[in-house]
Amino acid sequence: MDYIKERFKAKADELGADVKDLLKQHGSKKLDEVTVAQTYQGMRGVTGLVSETSLLDPNDGIRFRGYSIPELREKLPRVPDGSEPLPEGLFYLMLIGELPEEKDAQHLSNVWGRRSQVPRHVFNTIDKLPPDTHPMTQFGIGIMAMQTESVFAKAYSDGINKKEYWSYMYEDAMNLIARLPRLAAYIYRRKYKGNVHIEPDASLDWAGNFAHMLGYDDDSFRALMRLYMTIHADHEGGNVSAHTVHLVGSALSDPYLAFASGMNGLAGPLHGLANQEVIRWIQQLREELGGGLPNKAEIEKYVRKTLDEGKVVPGYGHAVLRKTDPRFTAQMEFAKKHLPDDELVNIVWRVYEVVPPILQELGKVKNPWPNVDAHSGALLVHYGLVEYEFYTVLFGVSRALGVLASLCWDRALALPIERPKSVTTRWMKDFVSGK
Ligand code: FCX
């Protein structure tokens, strides 16, 4: 057995015993109370899920196994002379719960490289779609087409012991992560680059090779991809994509089915699609003004118009965060180092000065600060990746790292099928009136 898989199994046995103990001793302890409002309002603030890979603090932002994004940028392994962390290292951290050594990240690069072959029928399936199909739709369909490769689905159909589920899920998760960059690059180059594809470069790391297959071989773009793939990977368990993967996986749907479902959630404009919406929104602003760098008054007018039209300002707000997203800050730091004079980036920074006080003024927006999606598109545009409909696919490739590591944990801890109780408004009225 691969040594990382062995380590995972050992950690899972250890935590499994802890959880058993916790449930035995404290299983009936109350964690929370649920209000009528919370059941109608997206269960905001209800603690009802366990996700081992990361934890979100409203003020400090995301921590992966206790490490913040600035800490990870310091501590995770990099390529020689690299400036940004390797997502392989983050995956190891989320899966095993400890910081990796360089050789662990390198090992994962090699394992994923070896498993990265995407079957021909997946490309054939994509080729049958109208070229104007949204890249996220193509991505979901491609993942579903790859489900033919699920070792869990096959093993389950052949008949396996419950205790072995985790092992097959793990294999599927590793294969899927390995294959996603190739699938995503295929979709990109088919739709935007005349269907001319680029063969993988086995000497590169997972994110570096992804950048290469997309057609961007600039060193600083590769660094951006490593950072991008690291910061989008996980945001605890309750966000739509992570929760969906957990929920669908709880029915023992294999990782291909569960991950494709999560990607359909990521494709929503209030979630991952917001990264394309930000660029579209800024482009419309520029078109209205005839180009150039808009001043603060012009941005303010445009923001107010957006709100008056009953739309949200994309890239701002969050269900849990209550401060500027550290993922926004990490990208801002990257931009200050690599592209401080970029016009679009400067618009993003100016929007950051203008939007929060206006959202605060509304009195209802709980978090007026920018989230990860407010910055990511401007960086990509700088390097020539201007096709903003593709941006959520990049988010999705990264998100696989967190949600699939979590799915391995779900099966290793033998978590049951998820089934919260729902009620009707009739029931609710009877309840509040004491009937
Ligand atoms: N612009 C305008 N109005 C906003 C707003 C924004 N950016 N953010 C929140 N609001 C509004 C809500 O629409 C809601 O209005 P309503 O009462 O009239 O329906 C009110 O403020 C209260 O919402 P709030 O509790 O603050 O936020 P929610 O937890 O319900 O929603 C999201 C959180 C992220 C969905 C919301 O802030 C939003 O729509 N933001 C814009 C889209 C976006 O950037 N999404 C990406 C989020 C994330 F980072 C990701 O998943 O990628």
**Percent helix:** 55-70%
CATH fold-level topology of the domain at 274-382 = Cytochrome p450-Terp, domain 2
Low-confidence runs: none
| Class by alpha and beta content | mainly alpha
* Radius of gyration computed on alpha carbons: 22 Å
Largest sheet: 3 strands, antiparallel
What does this structure look like?
A 3-stranded antiparallel sheet has the order 1-2-3. The chain is an all-alpha fold and 435 residues long. It is built from 20 helices and 3 strands. The protein has a domain at 274-382: Cytochrome p450-Terp, domain 2, CATH 1.10.230. 60% of the residues lie in helices and 2% in strands. Helix 10 (206-214) packs across helix 11. Strand 1 and strand 2 (61-64) form a beta hairpin. Bound molecules: alpha-fluoro-carboxymethyldethia coenzyme a complex (FCX). The site of alpha-fluoro-carboxymethyldethia coenzyme a complex has 23 residues, from loops.
Secondary structure topology:
Blueprint: H1 3-26, H2 36-40, E1 54-57, E2 61-64, E3 67-68, H3 69-75, H4 87-96, H5 102-114, H6 120-127, H7 135-145, H8 151-158, H9 165-192, H10 206-214, H11 219-231, H12 240-249, H13 255-266, H14 274-289, H15 296-308, H16 326-338, H17 343-362, H18 373-382, H19 391-412, H20 425-432
Antiparallel strand pairs: 1-2, 2-3
Helix pairs in contact: 4-5, 4-19, 5-9, 6-7, 6-9, 7-9, 7-13, 8-9, 9-10, 9-19, 10-11, 11-16, 11-19, 12-13, 12-19, 13-19, 14-18, 15-17, 16-18
The chain binds alpha-fluoro-carboxymethyldethia coenzyme a complex.
